[in-house]
């Protein structure tokens, strides 16, 4: 099930919030009310929002000041803000809205279809971004799992090789002891000593492939 995006509606007048809810209900997303800038900032502390519809003219903390607080927070600075205003003081007032971090500035009364279309674009962008994050996390987990599997396979192989080499080492040691006890000829003793050197070289190479030797560089196979 696809999780719904949250849209924050900020206006000090309940009738305006009700009108926004009526316009945006067709988007079938989660609409969250805030009747002041302070209430909006509190909601932004805990929830993630796709877009914020922010009234400019509010008592106390107005829309510009609220937007400035939103843009200063690392958690919320990238949330798109659409300013809504019932007044129009010309280009300078509009520029102030964009300077505060708004992605759009709409004067009331506005066309419900236009507002819904603008909001739907940001909701779609938000949902796509969430999907990308989920896919990236899934890929990361898959790569991590593949890495662990690759680490486990050589570990099991190294353990088996070590056990087999240990058996050969034990047999070679017994052979060398027997040759010493039997006072064998020099050639046999030399051959046994050569075998032990080869086994020692193999053991060192095998140990170099074990855990804790990642920084030692690749092991060099002994010359047999």
Automatic annotation (TrEMBL):
The modification 4-aspartylphosphate is found at residue 55. Keywords: Coiled coil, Phosphoprotein. It comes from the Bacteria. Pfam families: Response_reg. Residues 6-123 form the Response regulatory domain. Residues 158-185 form a coiled coil. This is Response regulator.
């Amino acid at each position: 099930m696809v999780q719904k995006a949250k849209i924050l509606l900020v206006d000090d007048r309940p009738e305006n919030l009700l009108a926004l809810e009526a316009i945006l209900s067709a988007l079938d997303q989660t609409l969250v009310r805030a009747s002041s800038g302070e209430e909006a900032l509190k909601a932004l502390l805990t929830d993630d929002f796709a877009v914020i519809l922010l009234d400019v003219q509010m008592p106390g903390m107005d829309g510009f000041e609220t937007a400035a607080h939103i843009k200063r927070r690392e958690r919320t600075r990238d949330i798109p803000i659409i300013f809504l205003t019932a007044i129009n003081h010309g280009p300078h007032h509009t520029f102030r809205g964009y300077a505060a971090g708004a992605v759009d500035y709409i004067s009331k009364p506005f066309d419900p279809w236009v507002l819904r279309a603008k909001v739907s674009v940001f909701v779609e962008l938000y949902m796509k971004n969430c999907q990308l994050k989920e896919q990236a996390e899934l890929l990361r987990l898959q790569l991590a799992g593949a890495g662990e599997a690759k680490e486990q396979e050589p570990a099991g192989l190294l353990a088996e090789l070590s056990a087999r080499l240990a058996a050969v080492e034990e047999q070679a040691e017994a052979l060398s002891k027997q040759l010493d006890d039997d006072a064998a000829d020099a050639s046999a003793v030399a051959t046994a000593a050569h075998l032990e050197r080869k086994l020692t070289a193999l053991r060192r190479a095998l140990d170099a492939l074990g855990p804790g030797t990642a920084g030692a560089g690749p092991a060099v196979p002994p010359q047999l």
